[in-house]
């Protein structure tokens, strides 16, 4: 059960990506985003993805160094064809373009299709928040990455269609809501599978409508289970509704492809929206009111067993502080998969753990 320093995981991931054919700048950037996800506590979007991305490169589904093409553009919008490059590279560039456009036009929307997995969403809108803008991002999975049942249903019909919103703040804690519209991200089920653990009640529903606790059931062919929409069996109509609308924004408006019987290639169709705060309210006043809101929310009494009310982004901020000190745990299964790739590519000076 190895524990790593962030720089060790960055180096190992980048080395493997470069050996698989990625240009160094891209390999470093993707490795950095993955390790940031580990630091934030979202191992589901950390280095566990290295073998997945390398597999996709081998299969020709992920194209390192692919050009990022703006195919349609106005002063406040852009439509980007990612040409199947690394999602992190494309999403970062799309966010930079959205920020530039919002600086000039006050609001912008940049849509992306043909992009590999972009990883943890929260880092992208936070780029806007650091520039005193509000960032909003959402993705689907090209119609092919189906893992979530519709409310009232038992079969996979939608992806986990996450959304993230970040706002500027004068406080120490970055305010980032970053969540799947399913009960959990699919990667969290993958983590349970790699750690040989059961999934908790309320995550998966069997095709026959019964609860399921075996993570393998999600990946069986044909699948024996699906993830429940956010809100689960009682309020899942809300998570399902959000996922449904995100599927339309990313899959149809952004032209990335939507859930259907024939969809076969997973792609993170991405919508990035950036809003310039100062267009509506002076930035300092916005930040002051945000801090006042946080203060008030935190005055709520806590439920039994809860020590403190947190705000969106706070658990990740705290986890990062901890992991920077104590290191990042990677389960044997994931680390062995990465090690095997390093051996296969003959990566020299690979860390041995
Ligand atoms: P989650 O259920 O842990 O929810 C995370 C969100 O809830 C964060 O904003 C966090 O700050 C907030 N939160 C958690 N506990 C809180 C508390 N006690 N008080 C206040 N706020 C709290 O995460 P998830 O939905 O499983 O998603 C995990 C990650 O997976 C995200 O980073 C997401 O971007 C990523 N994801 C990516 C894809 C993709 O295709 N690229 C798909 C799905 C999910």
Poorly predicted runs are: none
Hetero groups in this structure are: nicotinamide-adenine-dinucleotide
Question: Shape from CA axes?
Answer: globular
**Arithmetic mean of pLDDT:** 97
Gist?
With 353 residues, the protein is α+β, with helices and mostly antiparallel strands. It has eleven helices and twelve strands. It has a domain at 1-65 and 328-353: Hypothetical Oxidoreductase Yiak, Chain: A, domain 1, CATH 1.10.1530.10.
Explain what this protein looks like in three dimensions.
With 353 residues, this protein is α+β, with helices and mostly antiparallel strands. The longest helix is centred in the C-terminal third of the chain and has 22 residues, at 232-253. α1 (6-19) crosses α11 and α4 runs parallel beside α5 (123-129). The chain starts with a strand and ends in an 8-residue tail after the last helix. The chain has eleven helices and twelve strands. The protein has a domain at 1-65 and 328-353: Malate/L-lactate/L-sulpholactate dehydrogenase, four-helix barrel (Hypothetical Oxidoreductase Yiak, Chain: A, domain 1). The protein is globular, with a radius of gyration of 20 Å. The chain has a seven-stranded mixed beta sheet, sandwiched between helices. Strands 9-8-10 form a three-stranded antiparallel beta sheet. α4 links the parallel β3 (77-85) and β4 (107-115). The mean pLDDT is 97. The site of nicotinamide-adenine-dinucleotide (NAD) has 28 residues, from β7 and α10.
């Amino acid at each position: 059960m190895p524990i790593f320093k962030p720089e060790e995981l960055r180096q190992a991931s980048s080395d493997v990506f470069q050996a698989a054919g990625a240009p160094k700048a891209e390999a470093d950037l993707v490795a950095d985003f993955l390790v940031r996800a580990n630091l934030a506590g979202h191992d589901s979007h950390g280095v566990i993805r290295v073998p997945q991305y390398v597999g996709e490169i081998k299969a020709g589904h992920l194209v390192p160094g692919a050009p990022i093409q703006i195919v349609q553009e106005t002063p406040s919008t852009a439509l980007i064809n990612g040409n199947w490059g690394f999602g992190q590279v494309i999403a970062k560039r799309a966010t930079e373009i959205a920020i530039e456009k919002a600086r000039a036009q006050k609001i912008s929307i940049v849509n992306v299709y043909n992009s590999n997995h972009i990883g943890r969403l929260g880092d992208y809108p936070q780029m806007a928040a650091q520039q005193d803008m509000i960032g909003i991002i959402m993705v689907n999975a090209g119609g092919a990455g189906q893992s979530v049942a519709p409310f009232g249903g038992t079969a996979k019909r939608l992806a986990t269609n996450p959304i993230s919103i970040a706002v500027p703040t004068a406080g120490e804690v970055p305010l980032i809501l970053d969540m799947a519209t399913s009960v959990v991200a699919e990667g969290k089920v993958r983590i349970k599978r790699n750690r040989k653990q059961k999934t908790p009640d309320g995550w998966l529903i069997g095709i026959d409508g019964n609860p399921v606790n075996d993570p393998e059931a999600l990946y069986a062919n044909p699948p024996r289970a699906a993830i429940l929409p956010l809100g689960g069996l009682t309020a899942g109509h809300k998570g399902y509704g959000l996922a449904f609308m995100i599927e339309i924004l990313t899959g149809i408006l952004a032209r990335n492809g939507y859930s259907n019987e024939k969809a076969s290639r997973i792609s993170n169709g991405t919508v990035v929206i950036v809003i310039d705060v100062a267009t509506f309210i002076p930035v300092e006043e916005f930040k002051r009111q945000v801090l006042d809101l946080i203060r008030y929310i935190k005055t709520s009494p806590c439920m039994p067993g809860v020590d403190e009310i947190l705000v969106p982004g706070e658990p990740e901020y705290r986890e990062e502080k901890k992991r920077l000190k104590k290191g990042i745990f990677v389960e044997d299964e994931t680390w062995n998969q990465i090690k095997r790739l390093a051996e296969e590519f003959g990566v020299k000076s690979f860390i041995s753990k």
